[in-house]
Amino acid sequence: MTDVVDLLRAALGDAVSTEADALEAARADKSGQRSAGAPLAVITARTVEHVQAVLRSAHEHGIAVVPRGAGTGLTGAAMAGPGELVLSTAAMTRILEIDEADQVAVVEPGIRNADLNRALEPHGLRWAPDPASREISSVGGNIATNAGGLLCAKYGVTREAVLGLDVVLADGTLMRLGHRTVKGVTGLDLTALLIGSEGTLGIIVGATLKLTPIPTGAVATIGATFPTIEDAAAASAAITAARIRPAAMELIDPVALAAILRHLGLPDRAPGTAHLLVQTDGEAAESEARAALAIITALGGTARMTTDQEEGERMLAVRRAMHPAMESLGQVLIEDVAVPRSQLPAMFAAIRTIAERHGILIPTVAHAGDGNLHPNLVYEGDEVPDVIWRAAGELFEAALALGGTLTGEHGIGTLKRRWLVDELGDEQLALQRRIKQAFDPRGILNPEKVF
Amino acid sequence: MTDVVDLLRAALGDAVSTEADALEAARADKSGQRSAGAPLAVITARTVEHVQAVLRSAHEHGIAVVPRGAGTGLTGAAMAGPGELVLSTAAMTRILEIDEADQVAVVEPGIRNADLNRALEPHGLRWAPDPASREISSVGGNIATNAGGLLCAKYGVTREAVLGLDVVLADGTLMRLGHRTVKGVTGLDLTALLIGSEGTLGIIVGATLKLTPIPTGAVATIGATFPTIEDAAAASAAITAARIRPAAMELIDPVALAAILRHLGLPDRAPGTAHLLVQTDGEAAESEARAALAIITALGGTARMTTDQEEGERMLAVRRAMHPAMESLGQVLIEDVAVPRSQLPAMFAAIRTIAERHGILIPTVAHAGDGNLHPNLVYEGDEVPDVIWRAAGELFEAALALGGTLTGEHGIGTLKRRWLVDELGDEQLALQRRIKQAFDPRGILNPEKVF
């Protein structure tokens, strides 16, 4: 296998690295997990041809390839281990085209989501997917995981914002999927199939993105507290049921809120206090916010509403402080279940029961507009203890029992593989494996991930 | 093979028909085409178990099965011929659930699009896909073709309005794909893959649909005429570029307009006159319509705007009269190319050149908001003459050369099979066939369609 590394180095020069630091970095992502050992080499592709060359060699020699973007994934999908090659598209960061008339951008996969959106802003356009990681995550990674974010209840997930993909298959074949038009139904929708496939079907080397106008009009923000998380969740469900469509609607449970307030140096609230953030935008921003405010107050919330942008940002800062606040508690396993919106109160109750049963902390935030919860399972030490895995398993069971899903926006990766069959069933899992085989008959692309 | 029909009749009773009328009806759809001869039998499934029973038998005996809904397709995908079984889901029309809180409906595939939306209206909800055929086409057929319609530039296509599918595979296995939650990325997105697969991968027997609130606020409608279709297309492109998002924006070319005016008994316009219809909705309806009106006038259009609902409906009636007006011209082959929006003027010019070259009429309407054109190639007699096929081929070439696609919303079926490889290329077509095989190893589901 070292021979292949030598061959690649001869062909690709300094794009191939076997430096200890590079190998070590590729063992991990942002999941807190780490692979069993160092991979063979990290190839930082600068062109599509680099990607093709690596896959042709790997295919010929039967060597596993782990595709990698910015390495910000939360499920271990980009972690590489012994005997594997890492193929990074992080250096392919060019914007090839911004077409204002057709509202389309053509980009390389390595560009950061926020960098792309900063480049689009002068054109009055944006790419709607806005994962919380947007400053550090790449467009290619957003596509590989079908990333969601704060705005997607109103503005859609990644799948709805991608028109076409350039993909290199396991054998090095470059394939252009999809189209540049808004609509198109020519053959099977392989673009949609690739989105969220977590590097198991092909390597994304280019994307034709559907852009949308940056919303105009006011932005209104509401920060509200409730005596319990169930009350707060009931209010968010009532807002959805009232046909109000907030741009963002975030729930913060009491455990998370206490940690965030401590982290920000703000005074404590009464035990059990939960937080609800609502932001509306567009022409109806104010009237929608006033309607939401009335619901919040009627359901026992204490709320403040503003149309001042800076004050709105300060309110959102509470939610944005979640990740740093968690770091002060210890290590966290970040989970990502989703349930039908009406089941949010039941899911929060289930999380509390599970935390109490195991004597652990599970601070939880949720994108309430789409029923997606992020329970953070807190633990000490370098390894995820068994009790945390057991609690995670019970979380998944509870979500599935409520008509939900294992993962709303992070993906399966290595972390949730053991539960995949619980949701899909044996027959669908077998079908998914046959499809994987149609793309990658030798099984070299991101093996032991997802399936 | 008659044995299989006998076996099915023994098992399913009067769900199995070999009546001449039923067989004859299943030879055609709304494409104007007809299969080479009568199929073996038509099975009108009333339950999921019926569908499974038919597929188990067909799979065992290697008999082709043509899935069929309302039979309103425009590409021949539901046409059945000698040696084939027709499996119709048209009688499975129940709404199993409407959940207002989660904005979800669970339905059987045979329900008509418009019937579903009438049932949703009292709940203040709708299922957004609105093909022009909505009164006669089924939800299952809308899903099998990823149907578009007049509103989809603003409100999305079918793929964006389906959360989960119950599908019976070729061997009779029932599989539940997707989920009930708004978000979910567990494994490969087989729901998206099934949408638009035209009956080649499985038979849709149930769907979990994402509903959206019926827009509130005013509706504003503009009817405008321009001296040429290129002027009208330039105005529609300018409206899009100005970040206005009409609910519907329809172009009618001079040949189509003349036929429609004649059909409606309205006075002729000057030769070359083209029509542009714009409808805006929601809170910003009036301000958006006024901005569109200013653009239309500045670009040489003569326009009338109304916020009166009845007058707006009368304006839209011009567009709705397209299909009946075509019937007065002769037979038509309805095409469905899509191009990037900025290329609409170029595509209209190409259509005129092709029509003149062959001495034929190609009245054309377009969903301007998403660049989707429906050229209607007019001919006489029962068979599509060679000159029409040649002209259609040139249309496809022109669309592809402009960065477009063969089909925006009707699908490939049998009509566009010969051009599929021109868009996909040999390698992608081979990959699509391997995926088909992963679902249907014996190739019994809708053979000779699409691929």
Automatic annotation (TrEMBL), chains A, B:
Domain of life according to the entry: Bacteria
Cofactor dependency: FAD
Pfam families documented for this protein: FAD-oxidase_C, FAD_binding_4
Protein name (database record): FAD-binding protein
FAD-binding PCMH-type domain ranges (all copies): 35-214
Keyword field: FAD, Flavoprotein, Oxidoreductase
InterPro entries according to UniProt: FAD-bd_oxidored_4_C (IPR004113), FAD-bd_PCMH (IPR016166), FAD-bd_PCMH-like_sf (IPR036318), FAD-bd_PCMH_sub2 (IPR016169), FAD-linked_Oxase-like_C (IPR016164), FAD-linked_OxidoTrans_Type4 (IPR051914), Oxid_FAD_bind_N (IPR006094), Vanillyl_alc_oxidase_C-sub2 (IPR016171)
